[in-house]
Amino acid sequence: QVQLVESGGGLVQPGGSLRLSCAPKDFPVSHYTILWLRQAPGKEREGVSCFGHSDSATYYSNSVKGRFTTTRYDAENNVYLEMSALTPEDTGVYYCATSRGRCWYSYLINPPDKYIENWGQGTLVNVSS
Fold first, then answer.
1. Which CA distances in Å does 40 have to 52, 69, 81, 91?
2. By C-alpha distance, which of 36, 41, 45, 38 is closest to 99?
3. Are 111 and 43 contacting, i.e. CB atoms less than 8 angstroms apart?
4. Which element (helix H / strand E) includes 123?
5. What is residue 1's predicted lDDT score, i.e. its pLDDT?
6. Burial of residue 118 (number of CB atoms within 10 Å: 0-12, 13-18, 19+)
7. What radius of gyration, in Å, describes the C-alpha atoms of the chain?
8. Is the pLDDT of residue 63 over 90?
9. pLDDT tens per residue across span 9-59
10. C-beta separation of 48 from 66 below 8 A
11. What is the C-alpha separation between 51 and 49, in angstroms, rounded?
């Protein structure tokens, strides 16, 4: 079982920015594709971004493209999701997750069965004035 520790959520005003962190425990972050997913109140969980383990391929959902950036820092053994121009529609619990598969846009949007193997505990992002 791979443990993932997330941090960085909180309350932010519309138009503001936040940076979320996903720090794996006891394994190199470069060994896995890292995904960010979110679940808004009353809505289904949706993929936000993925960062491929072998080729650093990066994909974003249409709802966040151009506003969110995923970056992996191997020296820190950490993956960050930098979010800007936040709107109330970005409110939700954000999860990082791992996969041994590659990062594909289609897998981000509609993960195949067993594609996602481990989940972080989630961190709440609340965009509100």
1. 25, 19, 17, 6
2. 36
3. no
4. strand 123-127
5. 75
6. middle
7. 13
8. yes
9. 999 999 999 999 999 998 999 999 999 999 999 999 999 999 999 888 999
10. no
11. 7
